[in-house]
Amino acid sequence: MSDPFGLEPLASGGYGLTEAPRIGRDGTVWFSDVTGGGVHRIAPGGEEVEVVLERRRGIGGLVLHRDGIVVSGRDLLQIRADGSQHVLFAPDEELGITGFNDLHVDRNGWLLAGALRFRPMAGEEPQAGRLVVIGPRFVAAAVEDGLTWPNGIGLAPDGRTAYVCDHQHHRVLATAVDRDGALHHEVRTFAQAPEGHGVDGLAVDAEGGIWVATAHGGGLVRFAPDGTVDRVVEGLAPFVASLAFGGPDGRDVVVCAVRGEEGGAVLRGRSDVPGLPTPPCLV
């Protein structure tokens, strides 16, 4: 299938692995550079890229906070609107956490974080990862069994199912969510990536479709709520890392990709179906 979003370059040149896209309700676009370092921001309707955070590498996740943003990496770092910084959560030696990858926010404003127990960029042997839930006064390790390299995270429209990509095994896992927001420990394989595709970032649309960036597959896959493949979009770039919906009507789309010798890029388009709104983090 051809590109359904009419994607056009928004930012490119000088980036390594662009990742962690977010779109504010006013249309502000945020993204990171995993290998080159830093967090970048583009104002609504603009094209000029502003550096929000310099040098920090390994940021695979970014969410909006009621006061600024939260980014992943060696710890979970809040960057407040005034530019000050606050570590929300540092790696826990008892849990064996070496750092964090993708992030999401649930309906309570709690933070969902993919916790790593090995350093993939350093070539370390894969170890089982975890999906960690962080609230205002608690931290709980939820999904553990069957998850190795946690990546994209999302929730179903009713909030009762959580999805997390396992980059290592090219699949999307799912687990039930209680009414109070607690995640079950039992997981199931929700969907397997089509042949030749991987799984990386994830975003859910208002119809309950689960969009997954296919990494070296070079495109996107939309899974229906029952886990069947609904659409396969190919040929966007050699490597497609992540995507996000947002903007005033939820129909703006940004995709982070690596376009060969051009390096990392951020592509922008529009969707017929809006994305599922994500509240700001309240932790």
Automatic annotation (TrEMBL):
Substrate binds at residue 101. The keyword Zinc applies. GO terms for molecular function: metal ion binding. Binds 1 divalent metal cation per subunit. Its cofactor is Zn(2+). Keywords: Metal-binding, Zinc. InterPro entries: 6-blade_b-propeller_TolB-like (IPR011042), SGL (IPR013658), SMP-30 (IPR005511), SMP-30/CGR1_Lactonase (IPR051262). Gene3D superfamilies: TolB, C-terminal domain (2.120.10.30). Residues 18-256 form the SMP-30/Gluconolactonase/LRE-like region domain. The active site is at 200 (proton donor/acceptor). A divalent metal cation binds at residues 151, 200. It comes from the Bacteria. This is SMP-30/Gluconolactonase/LRE-like region domain-containing protein. The lineage of its organism: Bacteria, Bacillati, Actinomycetota, Thermoleophilia, Solirubrobacterales.
